[in-house]
Amino acid sequence: MPNILPSIFVPLVGLFLPALTMALLYFYIQNDDIF
Predict the structure, then answer these.
(1) Quick one: how far is CA 14 from the chain centroid?
(2) What are the strands, taking DSSP E only, across 1-35?
(3) What pLDDT is stored for residue 4 in this prediction?
C-alpha cells in the first residue's frame, strides 16, 4: 500500500498544482481588467 499511494498522489499534485496556479492567474487578470 505505501508504494501505491505516491504513484497516485504525485501525478495528482502534478496536475492539480499547475491548474490551480493558472486559475489564480486567470482570476487575477480578470479582476485587473475590471478595475
Answers:
(1) 8
(2) none
(3) 79
Ranges of the chain with pLDDT below 50: none
Residue 25, classed as helix, strand or coil, is: helix
Instruction: Tell whether pTM > 0.85.
Output: no
Q: How far is it, in rounded angstroms, from Cα 13 to Cα 29?
A: 24
Cell numbers of 28, please?
A: 487575477
The dihedral formed by the CA atoms of 24, 25, 27 and 31, expressed in degrees to the nearest 10: 130
Q: How many angstroms separate the Cα of 30 from the Cα of each of 5, 19, 25?
A: 37, 16, 9
pLDDT score, position 2: 66
What is the dihedral sign for C-alpha 10, 16, 22, 27? negative
